[in-house]
Amino acid sequence: MEILSTIFSLFLFVLPILASSSQSQVYIVYFGEHKGDKKLHEIEEYHHSYLASVKETEEEARVSMLYSYKHSINGFAATLTPTQASKLSELEEVVSVFPSHPRKHKMHTTRSWEFVGLEEGIKQQLHMHMDKSEALLTRAKYGRNVIVGVLDSGFWPESKSYGDEDMGPIPKSWKGICQEGDAFNSSHCNRKVVGARYYVKGYESYYGPLNRTVDCLSPRDKDGHGTHTSSTVGGRTVPDAAFMGSLAQGTASGGAPLVHLAIYKVCWGIPGKDKVNGNTCFEADMLAAMDDAINDGVHVLSISIGTTTPVKYHEDGISIGALHAVKKGIVVACSAGNYGPQPGTLSNPAPWVITVGASSLDRKFSAPVVLGNGLIVEGETITTYRLDNISYPLVYAGEITIPNVTRELSGQCLPNSLSSEKANGKIVFCFRGNGTRVGKGMEVKRAGGIGYILGNAKGQGEEIVADPHVLPATSVGEHEAMKIYKYIKSTKFPVAKILPAATVVGTSPAPFMASFTSRGPNVVDPTILKPDITAPGLNILAAWSGADSPSKLASDDRIVEWNIYSGTSMSCPHVAAAAALLKAIHPTWSSAAIRSSLMTTAGLENNNGTLITDAMGNPANPFQYGAGHLQPTKAADPGLVYDTSYTDYLTYLCSIGMPGFDSSFKCPKVLPKTNDLNTPSLAISKLNGSLTVTRTVTNVGHPGKTSYFASVKPPMGYRVKISPSILIFKHKGQKKSFKITVEKERDVIQGVSAQEYEFGWLSWFDGVHTVRSPMVVSSA
Fold first, then answer.
1. Torsion on CA atoms 627, 631, 635, 639, rounded to nearest 10
2. Can you tell me the mean pLDDT for 361-377?
3. Domains: count for the chain
4. For residue 42, what are the domain limits?
5. Is 569 a catalytic residue?
6. Where is the active site (predicted)?
7. Active-site annotation holder among 24, 47, 100, 152
C-alpha cells in the first residue's frame, strides 16, 4: 500500500457513567517498576484506589478500569477526563499519564534469508549437501527452546508455517495461555505456537464494540500482517512456496524455523476503512500484551508497530514495556516506520530496543513495458493477470480525468477520477502520490481500463514495491516513468504492451535502502543514534491469512497462502529471528549484548562491492541503515560487545530528566553525559569545541590473550582520538574501557553547513574480528 502520512483525528468514545463523558478517553497511568511487595490482587486494588481518588464513586472507578498492569509493568489504563488525568499526574509516585493513542500499521521468505547468509542451515534442514558444519542455524539448533513473542494482528493457524511436526517440547518455563474466541480454540495452539492472546479493550473504548464480521474477537488474523511477520520470524520450512503459484518460488522459512511462537493480537481493523489502509493498535492494549508476554516467559519480542510522530519515552507504551522486558533479559526488536525519505521520522527511538530500517533484496519481479516506438522499459509487478501479447492504446491519466479533479491530482488515478469513456480498453499510465498503489489500479479497472502502469513520481527513485494488482499491471521507477510520459506526449497514437511477470534473482545493486524507511536523527534524544540496523523489508514473501486478499482490497476476492509485502514491518522480524538464534547460542547474553553483536558485525557494502545507496542511487548513511545491513552469521562471533545494564538505562533516563521509572533506583548525584550510555554507536549534536565520551567493551571472542587495535574514519570536519588505541584482553569476559574525543576542526569546510550531520566510523580489529561502530556528529 502507498505510504500515507495521515494522522487520525481522535474520536472520544462516550461512556455514560462518567460525569464529564464528552471529554473522557483512555489514559495510561504509569508508576514504573513494581516494588515486589504486593500480590497480584493487591496490585489491582492499589490501582483501583488511585482511580477511585479521582472518580465520584467506587463503582465508577471499577467500570472505568480497562487494564491493571501488574506483572512487570506497574500501572493501569482507564477512561479519564483531562482533569482527572491531570490530578493523577501531579502525584509524586506517578511517572507519567498519557493518552492511549492509536498506532497504525504502516507499510512500519523464499529469498531474504539466503540473501543475508542463512542458506546453508536451511539447506541442511532439507537434507541437502552442506559444506559448513558450523552454520549459524546448526549451532543455534534452528532456534529450538527459544520463545519469540509477536505483537501484531494475530495469526492464521491453518498455514503450513505453524505446523509442529518434529518440534521439541514446550519449554517448562512457559507460563502463557491459548485464549479461545471467534473461530479459534485451544487446538490451534501447538508446540510451534505455544500461546495466543488478544487485547481489544483500548480499541473498543475508542471505536465501540468490535464488528465481528470484519475481525475475529480472538487471536485469529483476518488481516494478514501478523501472519506475515510471525512466519518471517519463525515459520516452519515449507518447500515449493510461491505467490499465486508462480512468483518467488522456493523454500519458505522463518529465520529461526524451530523457535516457539507466542502470538499477542493487539491490532484491529479500522471501522469503515479498507484493510489496505492498515490496522490500528492502541497503547493500552499493547502495554497489557507486553506485561503478559514478560510474565509468560518469552525470550524475544518482535513488534512491527510504530507511531506517526516520535513520542518521548515516558509517554510511549512500547518504550515503557520494552524497558521492563529488557530488565528480564528479553530482546525487543521494533520497526523504524515508513515515513521516509523525510528526516527525523522514525518510531521506537529508545536505546534499549533494536530499531530496524528496511532495505532491498537481490530479487525483482520483472514485467517490462514495450512501447510503440520499440523502447523496452523495465517494470515490476506481482500481478498474475496477463494481457495478450499485442499492443493496446496507451493513455496518461492526467489526460482522461473528469473536469472537477485538480491539476495537481489529475495524473494519480484517485477513486472516481477517471473518465470511463476515455479509459475504456486502454492501458492507463498513472503517477504515485496520494492514495494507495493498488487502489489506483482498482480505479483504472472501474473506468474500464484494460491495463495499468504505475510510475514513481519525482524523488521516489528506482525503488519499486511490487503489488498484486487487480488487473494486468506493472510499476516503473522514476527515470523509466519519464520515458513513458515523454513517449505518450510525443506521438498522436501511443500504444504499449505489458509483458507477464517473471522472478529474477541476482539483481544489483543490493541491498539499497527503501525510500519509505523512516530516517534519523532521533528527535526524542539526538545523542542516541537510530535506527540501529537495516534488514530486508522490500517485497518479502511470507505466509498470509486465508481471510484477506493479497491486495487487501475489499473488492478483491483472491485467496493466497503466501503474499509479498513491504515495509519496516517486514524487516523487523528478520532481526528478531536473528536475535532468537543468538539467544539460542548465547543464552546468558543480555539484550544489549545481542543488539551490539548484530550492529557491530553489520555490512556496509552491496553485492557490487560498493557502499550501500538509497533508492535514488545516492550514498546512504547511518540515519537510514544505522550500523549497516544485517549479517547474522557474523553476529554469532562478534569478538567484542558493548554491554548495557538495566541500571545503566535508568541512569541514562536520569541524565535526560526522566527519573522515576523504577522507584527503588535513586539517581546518582553526579550524572554522566547522555553520550556516555554504552551503546555500539556514537551521536553528538551541537558540538562546541570538543567532547570526550567513554565506552566499555567486553571480550566474547578469543578465550586467551588477545589485542584489539583501533582505527577511525572521522566525520568530515572533525578530529577523533581513541585512548587507549590498543586494548589487551587476558581472558574471555574481561572488560576494557576507552575514551573517544571528538573535536571540531577550526578550518571552515567549503560548502558544508554547520547544521549538517557528518558521518564516520570507529573499528576495533584483532586480525579476525572487525568490531565497527557508526559515528554521527553535528555542530548545530
1. -70
2. 96
3. 4
4. 21-99
5. yes
6. 152 (charge relay system), 225 (charge relay system), 569 (charge relay system)
7. 152
